[in-house]
UniProtKB/TrEMBL annotation:
Protein keywords: Membrane, Signal, Transmembrane, Transmembrane helix
Keyword Flavoprotein: no
Transmembrane portions of the chain: 309-331
Keyword Transferase carried by entry: no
Protein name per the record: Ig-like domain-containing protein
Domain Ig-like stretches: 133-212, 219-302
InterPro entries registered for this protein in UniProt: Ig-like_dom, Ig-like_dom_sf, Ig-like_fold, Ig_sub, Ig_sub2
Pfam family, one: Ig_2
Protein origin, superkingdom: Eukaryota
Signal peptide segment: 1-21
Organism: Monopterus albus
PANTHER family: B-CELL RECEPTOR CD22-RELATED, VASCULAR CELL ADHESION MOLECULE 1
Length: 360
């Protein structure tokens, strides 16, 4: 019976040294923190000297360990939240994908007569790290999002079980905009363009991938500006600029000019440039901006071109001077044949002083 007694004693001893993991499978979202609950047992006669946690990528018996009470590192993501009696719970902050795998607890205890005994709970707790996912559904199934469309964004935490659904929050360009598992955008406008993410409400450090919504639309706010002014002086330079908001950007510009109710095309560039403007360039101008979703016409601007007063005077003077000489010349030749000496008296505007020019 002595063998039986020894066997039972041995069993008792084995049972006395043990580590219990309350959750053998733990799922966590990347960026969140997770607690691995744990308790450990050893004979009363022993006293715990050191505690360690290891990851299966290293030797869970020999280490190196991700936590070791003998080499304190307070800044580490790994925190021992248990004690040196029976609680060996472990916390991992800002969980990363490479934290996936088995985590095991090891402790070293001394007996009264300084016998040192290490023990590893080799079963361990297996950690799974997942990403938050965003599923975007569009009723019309199009790849691109157009003004007026609706879009449904749903946040999914694949750690969730049926009776345990996470609370989610939504961000647009990093600003909180919504709480709840789904975010529904109806009758989308250009202002809805942006980068969307979701997070777990309980763990602000978690974030899904970025969903970029780029709302496309036809030209809007098409307008014409005139530099330097729509009241121009003949001979100066004038620039008309067509501006418009569109996504994708405006592909084609067309300029139109209306004069006496006839509209003609006046250009194909975003800018209409007159290096030297003439009075006949005056009139009503508008532009049309086009992308793949359509066209929009601007309102019209009226370009007024004033002639230069000085120019008119010069032209008048030249005209009068020329006509004067011309008339005098003609009259002079006519009078040559009629009355050789009295002709110059009929000249309408010139004095007699220059008559020597034509005499002889
Ligand atoms: C172990 O300690 C942690 C942190 O102090 C506590 O949350 C947990 O309830 C404890 N576990 C047991 C079994 O006492
Ligand atoms: C795990 O990944 C993080 C960054 O993603 C890195 O800093 C760390 O060194 C990695 N740890 C191991 C053990 O590979
Ligand atoms: C997008 O959906 C609209 C209907 O809502 C359809 O008229 C259009 O052809 C679709 N565009 C593409 C690129 O599939
Ligand atoms: C958006 O999607 C979620 C999850 O699929 C669904 O429960 C919800 O009814 C949808 N909302 C709309 C307005 O389609
Ligand atoms: C969205 O993200 C893209 C790529 O990261 C970036 O280029 C863009 O500027 C972001 N948009 C906004 C509105 O922050
Ligand atoms: C068009 O102009 C209005 C009013 O100025 C402005 O609110 C709107 O954002 C503009 N639209 C675009 C696409 O720029
Ligand atoms: C247009 O006229 C302004 C003065 O009215 C002058 O400063 C500018 O250089 C001219 N531009 C060109 C391209 O001739
Ligand atoms: C822009 O003009 C080019 C050349 O005339 C034409 O091929 C193209 O279809 C036009 N684009 C749009 C959006 O109308
Ligand atoms: C813009 O004006 C042109 C020329 O008058 C016309 O043919 C076209 O239909 C107009 N476009 C729109 C969108 O009103």
């Amino acid at each position: 019976w002595i063998f039986r007694l020894l066997f039972m004693l041995g069993l008792l001893l084995v049972q006395d040294w043990r580590v219990e993991y309350q959750q053998q499978h733990i799922c966590a979202v990347k960026g969140s923190s997770v607690v691995i609950p744990c308790s450990f047992h050893y004979p009363e006669t022993y006293k715990v000297q050191s505690v360690k946690w290891g990851h299966e990528r290293c030797d869970i018996y020999k280490g190196p360990f991700i936590f070791d009470s003998e080499s304190n590192d307070a800044s580490s993501r790994f925190q021992y939240i248990g004690d040196k009696h029976h609680n060996c719970s472990f916390k991992i902050q800002q969980v990363e994908h490479n934290d996936t795998g088995k985590h095991a607890f090891r402790f070293v205890a001394n007996s009264r007569n300084d016998q040192v005994k290490p023990w590893t709970g080799s079963v361990g707790s297996v950690l799974t790290v997942v990403n938050l996912e965003v599923v975007m559904t569009k009723p019309n199934g199009n790849r691109t999002t157009m003004e007026g469309d609706s879009v449904n964004l749903t946040c999914i935490n694949s750690c969730d079980s049926e009776n345990d659904v996470s609370a989610f929050i939504w961000f647009k360009n990093r600003e909180l905009i919504h709480e709840g598992p789904a975010f529904y955008l109806s009758n989308i406008s250009p202002a809805n363009s942006g980068n969307y993410t979701c997070s777990l409400k309980s763990h602000k450090g978690t974030t899904s991938e970025v969903i970029s919504i780029d709302v496309e639309y036809g030209p809007k706010n098409t307008s014409v500006s005139v530099r330097p002014s729509a009241d121009a002086v003949a001979g100066s330079n004038i620039t008309l600029t067509c501006s418009s908001h569109a996504n994708p950007a405006v592909e084609n510009y067309t300029w139109f000019k209306t004069n006496e109710q006839i509209t003609v095309e006046a250009g194909k560039e975003p800018e209409l440039y007159f290096r030297e403007i003439f009075p006949h360039d005056g009139g009503q101008y508008f532009c049309s901006a086009t992308n793949k979703y359509g066209s929009q016409n601007s309102s019209t601007v009226t370009l007024k071109v004033k002639g230069k007063l000085v120019k008119i005077v010069i032209i008048l003077v030249v005209y009068l001077t020329l006509s004067c000489h011309f008339v005098r010349y003609i009259l002079f030749h006519i009078t040559l044949y009629t009355s050789k000496y009295n002709a110059l008296m009929f000249s309408p505007c010139c004095s007699n002083k220059n008559e020597t020019l034509f005499s002889g």
